């Protein structure tokens, strides 16, 4: 099973895959990007902003941008990817991401409190990842 979920403050959930058999899932994590195949060792990892790539049984490939979250690989080879935000890569606009990146960098440079700096740094990191993913 692979559940790639999208959640936000409104507790909205979008499931991209549910009980689907796939060949492989590649995920970006803070400990490095890695691929998940059947019989992968059970793992829990924190996702970093980037692209989750799903290789389907029929040969199709689906790319989903995630902002952050977790990936859990269970003993039965099931996988759950829970993301704060998840969007099909083809739905992202590189030009808009570049604008957001520019604004986030300005906010980071002008931030005075630690909270504002942290929030701006996260926005920069996510926007940079979107720009890179859509290149």
UniProtKB/TrEMBL annotation:
Pinpoint the ATP synthase F1 complex delta/epsilon subunit N-terminal domain residues: 14-86
Please describe what this protein does. Subunit delta, of the mitochondrial membrane ATP synthase complex (F(1)F(0) ATP synthase or Complex V) that produces ATP from ADP in the presence of a proton gradient across the membrane which is generated by electron transport complexes of the respiratory chain. ATP synthase complex consist of a soluble F(1) head domain - the catalytic core - and a membrane F(1) domain - the membrane proton channel. These two domains are linked by a central stalk rotating inside the F(1) region and a stationary peripheral stalk.
Q: Does the keyword Ion transport apply?
A: yes
Molecular function terms, GO-annotated: proton-transporting ATP synthase activity, rotational mechanism
Q: Does the keyword Transit peptide apply?
A: yes
Q: Which HAMAP family match?
A: ATP_synth_epsil_bac (MF_00530)
| Pfam families, sorted | ATP-synt_DE_N, ATPD_C_metazoa
Look up and give the organism this protein is from: Trichogramma brassicae
Q: What keywords does the record list, in alphabetical order?
A: Acetylation, ATP synthesis, CF(1), Hydrogen ion transport, Ion transport, Membrane, Mitochondrion, Mitochondrion inner membrane, Transit peptide, Transport
Q: What is its main location?
A: mitochondrion
Q: Where in the cell is it found?
A: Mitochondrion inner membrane
| Highest rank taxon of the organism | Eukaryota
Identify its protein family.
Belongs to the ATPase epsilon chain family.
Q: F1F0-ATP synthase delta subunit C-terminal domain: which residues? A: 92-133
Q: Which InterPro entries match?
A: ATP_F1_dsu/esu_C_sf (IPR036794), ATP_synth_F1_dsu/esu (IPR001469), ATP_synth_F1_dsu/esu_N (IPR020546), ATPD_C_metazoa (IPR048937), ATPsynth_dsu/esu_N (IPR036771)
User: Which SUPFAM superfamilies does the UniProt entry name for this protein?
Assistant: Epsilon subunit of F1F0-ATP synthase C-terminal domain (SSF46604), Epsilon subunit of F1F0-ATP synthase N-terminal domain (SSF51344)
Question: Protein name, please?
Answer: ATP synthase F(1) complex subunit delta, mitochondrial
Recorded GO CC terms: mitochondrial inner membrane; proton-transporting ATP synthase complex
Subunit structure and binding partners: Component of the ATP synthase complex composed at least of ATP5F1A/subunit alpha, ATP5F1B/subunit beta, ATP5MC1/subunit c (homooctomer), MT-ATP6/subunit a, MT-ATP8/subunit 8, ATP5ME/subunit e, ATP5MF/subunit f, ATP5MG/subunit g, ATP5MK/subunit k, ATP5MJ/subunit j, ATP5F1C/subunit gamma, ATP5F1D/subunit delta, ATP5F1E/subunit epsilon, ATP5PF/subunit F6, ATP5PB/subunit b, ATP5PD/subunit d, ATP5PO/subunit OSCP.
């Amino acid at each position: 099973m692979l559940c790639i979920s999208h959640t936000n403050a409104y507790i909205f959930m979008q499931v991209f895959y549910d009980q689907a058999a796939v060949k492989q899932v590649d995920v970006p994590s803070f400990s490095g990007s890695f691929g998940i195949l059947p019989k992968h060792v059970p793992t829990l990892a924190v996702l970093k902003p980037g692209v989750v790539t799903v290789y389907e049984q029929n040969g199709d490939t689906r790319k989903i941008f995630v902002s952050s979250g977790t990936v859990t690989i269970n003993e039965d080879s099931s996988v759950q990817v829970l993301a704060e935000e998840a969007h099909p890569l083809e739905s992202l606009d590189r030009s808009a991401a570049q604008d957001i990146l520019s604004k986030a960098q300005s906010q980071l440079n002008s931030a005075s409190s630690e909270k504002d700096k942290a929030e701006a740094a996260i926005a920069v990191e996510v926007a940079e990842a979107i720009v890179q993913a859509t290149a």
